[in-house]
Each structure stands twice: as structure tokens, then as C-alpha cells.
Design brief:
rod-shaped; 10 helices; 27% strand; two-stranded antiparallel ribbon
Amino acid sequence: MSRAAQRCMIAQPSLSQQIQKLEHAVGQRLFDRLGRGVALTEAGRTLLPRARRILAEVREVEQGLRSGEAGGPSRLAVGAIPTMAPYLLPAAIAQLRREDELCELIVREDLTEKLIEAVVDNELDVAVVSTPIDNPLIELEVIGSEELVVVVQGGCELAERDSATATTLRREPTVTLHEMHCLGQQVTGFCATRGINRNVVCRTTQLTTVLELVRLGLGISLVPQMAAEADRADSGRSYLRVAGGAPRREIALAWRVGRTRSRVGVRFGEVVE
């Protein structure tokens, strides 16, 4: 018992107490105490190979956790707002799958309020959103920002210009996202600070609908730079910067305060930037 305690680097009385607890738990005597020595009982000989397998599995799990391998397929539930999801998620998810084919990825596209609620309730590990977010249970990690640009019908007079002025935004018919989207709220806020009373002819809930209505000549709109970069050259649309200081929006990852970030979650934050 003394030599065993030395190998385990614990005091001999502590080892004896642990053995007694184990015997009590299994309801069998595992050792015969023989003066200055011990011998395994029949129950002890039966338990020994199984105990060795259990300890080997414990060591394997410990080594796997230290090396970042949790002993099974990784999993990530990620959300994103609709005005970012099509432009940021596909490439990031494809990269994660290339790095780990067994990774289980769950993707949810929804409005900011719903995504934040899901992160707080631990239904999502992380969400891609735009600031500001006012929730004490959410930790924001800003990973970038982008301009909002003016999209106009290709080939029209406005398309020949380098930029769009406040007068242009005030005068031209406008197609805009509904304010249920944070982008719709941001655009409305920008125009209010500039004193721009827009001539809104259509509000819609889909950014793709906004772009298509602009192509058909129904009006102009303010859209994210990432949407402009993803648009085809022959789409029938042109993009202009806003003169005198373009509006911007921040891109951020929303995490649940106090929750440990998984290895694949940290990696997602790296590849989505």
C-alpha cells in the first residue's frame, strides 16, 4: 500500500480510504489485508482488467481534450442576420467543413432579436449581427465594418456618377428594407441625422427583393457593401458611394456571457472575419 501510494503521489491513508470507498460502492471486498501485505480477492481479480480499461479511456479523453479533440465529432450552431448570412456564412462554413468533415454545423438565419434570444438560451453558440446590441447577457466581438452604398438601375443617368449626394437620396424614389431588419433601422437613422426625408415607394423584408426592384427601375436604395461586391457585373445595377461621409455598420459576433467557447466556435470567429 505504501509503494502504491508513492506511485499515485498521495498519502498512504488517503489511498486506503479510497479503496475502502470503492469496496463499499461495489459491495465486495477487493483486497485481503495480510499483515504487511495485501492480495486481490476473486472480486478484485475480476475488477482489475476492467479498471485498467476504464483508466486507459480516461487518459485517452484527457489527452484528446488537451489536443483539442473532444473524442467525437465537433458541433457548432451559428446564426446570422439575413443581410449578412448569404455573404459571410457560405465561405466560412465551407472552410470549417474542409478542416473537419465530421463537424456538425447548424445554421439559422433570422432577425437580430430572435438570434440574440437564441444565444442567450444556448440554442445557438454564436450569431453574426450588427451593433448596437443592448443585452447584459451578450458579449460582442466586433470583427469588422463596412460602408452602405447606393444601388441604382444600371444604365440610368445616376449610374454615370461617382457618388450620390444627400439631394439625390432626398429626391429619388426609394426602395428600402422594412425596419424589422436592423439594416432598415440603420438606414432610417442615417437619413434622419442628415435631414433626408426619403420618397419611399416600397418597403420589403428581403434584400434580394430590394435589389430586383432597383434593377427594374422602381427606385434607388442604400445597401451593404458586401451585397454590392457579391453582385454580378451584368446584374443591371450600379453602385455609388455616398458623398460627404458614407454610413457604416459594424459586423460583430454575439456570444453568451459566461459560456465557454468551443474550439470550432473560436475557429469560426477566425474564418468569418
